[in-house]
Amino acid sequence: MMINQAVLYTHLLDEMKAFYANSLNFPLTAASPRSFSIKVGESELTFKESALHTKPFYHFAFNVPANRFMEAKQWATQRVFLNIEEKKDEIYFEAFDAHSFYFEDPAHNIVEYISRHSDCPPSNDPFSSKSLLSIGEINLTTPHVRSVGTQLINSGITVRNNRPLNENFNFLGSDSAFFLVGAPKRRWFFSDRDSEVHPLTVKVNHSLAVALDKKGMLKITQE
Known about the structure:
TxDE; globular; 223 residues; 2,3-Dihydroxybiphenyl 1,2-Dioxygenase, domain 1; mainly beta; seven-stranded mixed beta sheet; VOC domain-containing protein
């Protein structure tokens, strides 16, 4: 699976734009008074101004070249404070053969940099934001976990390792891109925040638009 674009919402548009474009040096691909977009390797991440009185936040991951994890971590620690879990600021996921670290942006999105050593290609260049390969994960938080998971499966996006759907949390996708489909009020790893339902739209495989509304209902359209 490939995540081409993710469209998220934020109540701190100006602060977020400054953070991603200036503090983290992401290339801006578009900007307007109510939205901006950054280039994340082969993907694009867009933030739009949220509705009044809402403070959306999400979890998403960026794929790091297989051989650049430690360099990426050193680069990040010069710009952000890394989140801690059990006194550690990184983790190795044996099931994915991957290392990750986490931090939060001004809107408290839980941002993960993940290096999947078996699925992400290496890079010969020194690490920078331009080194990131793509968006590797994004949450779909919904009270309708089974029905949302079933919709994704029916659209050709399968559960990792073809496992049966879990009622509370699932990885759906393949290679180096996944949807994290889970229920609300689940604590995000490397965070003290519980998952919440917020709208978003994700374009995958240059063919599908996956849209979650504010009630956690999913709509998938063919493009």
